[in-house]
Design goal:
- It contains 14 helices and two strands.
- By secondary structure, the protein is mainly alpha-helical.
- It folds into two domains: 87 residues; 177 residues, Intergrase catalytic core (hpI Integrase, Chain A, Orthogonal Bundle).
- Strands 1-2 form a two-stranded antiparallel ribbon.
- It starts with a helix and ends with a helix.
Length: 293
Amino acid sequence: MIVIRWDKHLRHDRRRSDHTARAYVATAHRLIGFLGRHRGAAVDAAMLAAVEPADLRAYLAERRGDGIGNTSAARELSAVRGFLAFALGEGQSLPRLKGPRVKRGVPRPVSPDEAVALAEDAAESASAPWIAARDLAVLLLLYGAGLRVGEAMGLTGEILPLGESMRVTGKRAKTRIVPLLAPVRAAIDDYVRQCPWPMERGAPLFRGARGGPLSADLVRRAVRGARARLGLSERTTPHALRHSFATHLLGRGADLRSLQELLGHASLSSTQIYTAVDAAHLLDVYRNAHPRA
């Protein structure tokens, strides 16, 4: 079946993450189900090749009826185009359809004090001392090295013993070197000393309570609890710590190219959003401090 081959292509040829592959495959199933109802016939290669812009507009209209917004609709259309391109093969023209306009949001960073307080509060609320050390190490790593939460969960004992930097595998299996600040190294070393599970080279660095890989959902849950106790915004998430890392470096004079490397962005345009973050921060300072603001 074409969807099964699409799934394999995403995971093995394109090296997409499990999350992305599942989302794209789900979109392919939705599209095929819609076309079957819309055309009143079984969907085959010939029908996929005959898809027109009107069909895609009708599909997106149905998805809008499910309650998705502009951002989700744009992602859905991107996934549909990718699936059709794969199904039709090289050299085949795709139906042209302009996607919905998406206003790119500006990340909301937290202050350095708030980032540290978040990590410490999450640790203080842990159920065991070694779990407290783990949560502190994970959250300081997200803020201190700018990792995505999935990248932190993917670390193994191979990074030990720690040095002044470490190699991280990010999206599309792209690797980069990130520096490790002394407080981050100390927090990870403390966790390693307390962790009851052996730190084998191929085993996950961060473990769950039963010794399996730590779930990103548990990290998000710990952050939700800490931000509620500290009265922080709902936008204070594990990924907001990565945004804060980038914003604070830019505010201290880091150039965009260096920041792009540290964050593991494939495109500089993904990094340029942080110039808006820093400008917004400066505007807030101006409004709060200038006597005529």
